[in-house]
Design a protein that fits this description.
542 residues; Aldehyde Dehydrogenase, Chain A, domain 1; Aldehyde Dehydrogenase, Chain A, domain 2; 2 domains; seven-stranded mixed β-sheet; five-stranded parallel β-sheet; 16 helices; 23 strands; 39% helix; binds nicotinamide-adenine-dinucleotide; proline metabolism; Ald_DH/histidinol_DH
Amino acid sequence: MGKGFFNVPVAVNEPVKSYAPGTPEREAVLETYKEMFNSKINVPLYINGKNIETGNTRTMSPPHDHKHSVGTYHLAEKSHIDDAISTALEARKSWSLMPWEQRAAIFLKAAELIAGPYRAKINAATMMAQSKTIHQAEIDAACEFIDFLRFNVQFMTDIYMEQPESTSDAWNRVEYRPLEGFTYAVTPFNFTAIAGNLPACMALMGNVVVWKPSDSQVYSAKVIMDVFEEAGVPPGVINVVFGDPVMITNTVLASPDFSGLHFTGSTFIFKELWKQIGNNIHNYKTYPRIVGETGGKDFVVAHKSANPEHVATAIVRGAFEFQGQKCSAASRAYIPTSLWSDVKSKVIKDVKSFKMGSPEDMSNFITAVIHEGSFDKLAKYIDQAKADANAEIIVGGNHDKSKGYFIEPTVIVTTDPKYTTMCTELFGPVITIYVYEDDAYADTLKLVDETSEYALTGAIISKDRYAVTQATEALQNAAGNFYINDKPTGAVVGQQPFGGARASGTNDKAGSAQNLLRWVSPRMIKETFVTPTDYRYPFLGE
Ligand code: NAD
């Protein structure tokens, strides 16, 4: 151990490839997608480095073609979860002692595998499983995931270098120990990068993990496990289980060795898990760390000085990329009366120019929403808006689930700033707009702050610096990621660490040292060189 102070490679963001017609990356990803679409895979549980087939399977289908099967995955019984826990605890004995540079090398290798030989596979799997266009897959499954892996290695060394003062007669050292016990990662469907990062960053810091991916992300979760395996993550360090989330969670949280939850998903589920951990608190050997990044009701506020084209573009890109299924997606907007006519016509024109369909046809900007539950919920809100007197749909409003779960990008305008779709997270391609009187800017900012329980992302668009300052102050607690003159989406690892407060989560900022600090428990070591031999201090002298 420890025979040098090693420098890790300086982390840089992975460049986003264009996938323009004629590029080799476009050909490679389309070929891989076709291959995957026309074959069937069988996804096992991964426990102690072994593939476990339980025989109790469920079919996987692309959201844009839900009658087509691309394979099956195996569901765990309670005994598999018990195995995953005990195997993780056994693996901890070696993994927690592994020198940091060896852990770093594994995850740096994973980053390079994704950047190179696995890039087409992980992107094609994300297009298939989560119905992402190639651009959305590339910025998520390839680039963001690579960035998480590279930057986290750098942040880990930054943390390790944080050391206390020492004196000539006593050397003070801090060891950043992994948590005692095992950790639990519960991940959402919408980002392959988040799915990979939540277990990976805890393992990087020396922890062992039970990972439960979303049922709607299993296909790309399999590629992540293939990458981890090839990169050299040892057996038992990251164990993957699929199946009934309640049974899995009950089993995990009942273990006295449970030491941390790394969750991304909806607010209600996170609060339930927090409550359950609280109820079990007397059973645990340590106080579990709880990190959760959850829902949002993200806003765009335009000031009367804004350029209407800037406002319309922020709305269109912010609300509709990946069908609005980003926690950061703009889903409510506040536009001053004087700009409304120009903003409205550009938004309608842009939305009408979208093509919708399978991600395999790269001219499509919009694809399907994730599953039938989400489709039905969105269709219900859209149909209700058609019926409500205080709401008007100015573009979109159609939906069709005969082949895939297609919801037309929809813009609702309401006269009631507290209309249900101004407050509720719908998680789909729907934005609601409230038009305010130009001179009611201050009141509107107050409204923005008080309308939703969430505080994830938001944007102010203005040419007037006083108005920017006013919004920055008034909306101080309304967003963990606040944008000036931009859309409220598109955070980049290392540049805009991501997370929100209030009901949106614990704001531990994915892709930052702050997040990694939650997965270590420092041990202070003081070593005294000349040990005293007499208890008497000088003041006790005669
Ligand atoms: P979800 O809450 O439905 O599922 C998230 C995970 O929780 C999945 O693995 C799911 O199987 C699991 N789960 C579901 N019910 C459970 C239960 N009773 N007990 C234990 N686990 C359970 O969320 P989703 O639909 O996958 O993702 C969308 C949500 O995630 C949105 O609310 C979005 O805002 C949020 N999100 C937030 C961020 C962020 O950084 N703040 C990022 C991505 C997604």
